Amino acid sequence: MTISPILYNLIVMIFSVVYVFSVVAIMDHFVKKGFPQDISRKLVHIAAGSWIIFWAFYDNSHWSKYFNIAPALIWSILLLQKGFFAKPEDEAVKTMTRAGDRRELLKGPLYFTLVMNLMGTLFYNTTLSVTAMSYLGWGDGIAPIFGKKFGKHKFKFLSEKSIEGSFAFLIFGFLSSLLFNYILFGNIRLTENIIVGIAATIAEAFSPKDSDNLVVPAIIAILYLFVLN
Question: Where do the H-state alpha helices sit in 1-126?
Fold first, then answer.
């Protein structure tokens, strides 16, 4: 029996939604067991950025490929609701904020899901979107963890960063971008990725607090649309 494209894409979408919500639930479980909340927040960040791996399974010949944004759209709505009304024990507050303040959900986490929605529609399944989500997910996810543990050389412009954290952003963003671009498109644009990586690293290092989830993909989009095309 041949399955219709819309039903097939719906099934892929369901798996992607389960994946994203499972990560939050798993991290909530570990936070209750004493796992550091700040690390939990970034692991959710990394996992959410890796949602692009599901693009490899959608039937791109059918309009229902845009079902891919379902996890991001659902979380955008939830973050708005939770950011205004959630209680401190809410799992999203515990796993996706630094200090357990629900209002944090209306900043970095919400910006992240809005970027996911944009990448999954306007720039769906392109080198631009895959590279942006790689640096945003893995680069920006690993950087503060690495910087907190090894960051001895601090600098401050609009927010405090470390050279070690910025280096981690570049390396992990670069490697994950190469991997995802290879998986989805079968190519590795090494020179292009180096240029994008350096620009994204500088943008992340000097971005205002809580704005890097917007600044990093914006810089990458500008490069691909006006410089590297």
Answer: 5-32, 37-49, 70-85, 91-96, 108-119
